[in-house]
């Protein structure tokens, strides 16, 4: 594309709330075959709420929730906010914690009232050799969070996050352009599949550890061709940098924005559709 057509395209995209930080991305986006989305905060609002508490053994809901919320108080993960908010709604007093440690892609650990607490994904419990009881009647559609105290499962919690209102239409529009639409997420398989199904996304990579999103982008490129990746989190930065075109949500972390070629200012999924349209129009005008 000529410098002038790039300038015109960049200006038109900006009017639509899409900032091209690099002119090369305007050209690159027209040639992608795949667009992969992070889930939480990208396809969903990223503000989950607590939907379920099922205490195990002698635990009560409130006894489990006060410990979970105390441990999450220092975390800025969206799941943490949901759990802290859930405890606040019940007016629970939170105990002191010490030795808090984030376990990226897994959850958290800490000491509370002299007991060793683990909180996070089922795979954290598996890794630590903690047996998980069956949850009768659970559909698996929400994101599971397990609480373990001194090596024993104490409660099953679940959080759920609303899909962005324009996500379904945006996915359909990208598919109508002939693109393969994929999801790459650290969340558990069942909730990831449940959201993908609602959006018409068939290619889902779930339970991807933060360091592995980049590898997932490479694999998509090897199989299908040039890849765009859209995300919002700190853990999306390597995948944003790896992708042929990285698109960050303007509502996301600064680290994601810095790693991206394109910023979708409002955080709407339609930003990806607009970006792709402007890119294709820019290239076809000059041919
Ligand atoms: P994503 O944002 O794609 O879900 P993350 O790597 O941030 O990916 O998290 C992966 C999974 O690790 C989460 O779905 C959750 O199960 C678990 N996890 C991470 N941080 C926390 C936390 N603070 N509290 C509970 N679970 C967590
Ligand atoms: Mg995210």
UniProtKB/TrEMBL annotation:
Coiled coil: none annotated. It comes from the Bacteria. It is found in: Cell membrane. Belongs to the cation transport ATPase (P-type) (TC 3.A.3) family. Type IB subfamily. This is ATPase. It comes from Marinibacterium profundimaris. The chain holds residues 466 to 752 of 829 of the full protein.
């Amino acid at each position: 594309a000529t410098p002038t057509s790039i300038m015109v395209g960049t200006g038109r995209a900006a009017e639509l709330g899409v900032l091209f930080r690099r002119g090369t991305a305007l050209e690159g986006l027209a040639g992608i075959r795949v667009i992969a989305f992070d889930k939480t905060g990208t396809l969903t609002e990223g503000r989950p709420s607590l939907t379920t508490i099922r205490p195990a053994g002698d635990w009560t809901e409130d006894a489990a929730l006060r410990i979970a919320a105390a441990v999450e108080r220092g975390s800025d993960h969206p799941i943490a906010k949901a759990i802290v908010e859930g405890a606040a709604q019940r007016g629970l007093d939170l105990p002191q914690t010490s030795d808090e440690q984030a376990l990226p892609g897994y959850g958290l650990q800490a000491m509370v009232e002299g007991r060793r607490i683990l909180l996070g994904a089922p795979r954290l419990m598996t890794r630590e050799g903690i047996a998980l009881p069956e949850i009768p009647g659970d559909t698996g559609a929400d994101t599971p969070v397990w609480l373990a105290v001194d090596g024993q499962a104490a409660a099953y919690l679940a959080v759920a996050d609303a899909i962005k209102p324009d996500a379904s239409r945006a996915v359909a529009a990208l598919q109508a352009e002939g693109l393969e639409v994929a999801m790459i997420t650290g969340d558990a398989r069942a909730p990831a599949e449940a959201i993908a199904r609602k959006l018409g996304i068939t290619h889902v990579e779930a339970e991807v550890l933060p360091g592995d999103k980049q590898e997932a982008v490479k694999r998509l490129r090897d199989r299908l061709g040039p890849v765009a990746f859209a995300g919002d989190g700190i853990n999306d930065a390597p995948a944003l940098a790896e992708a042929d075109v990285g698109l960050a949500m303007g509502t996301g972390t600064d680290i994601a924005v810095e790693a991206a070629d394109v910023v979708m200012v409002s955080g709407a999924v339609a930003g990806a559709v607009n970006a792709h349209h402007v890119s294709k129009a820019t290239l076809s005008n000059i041919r």
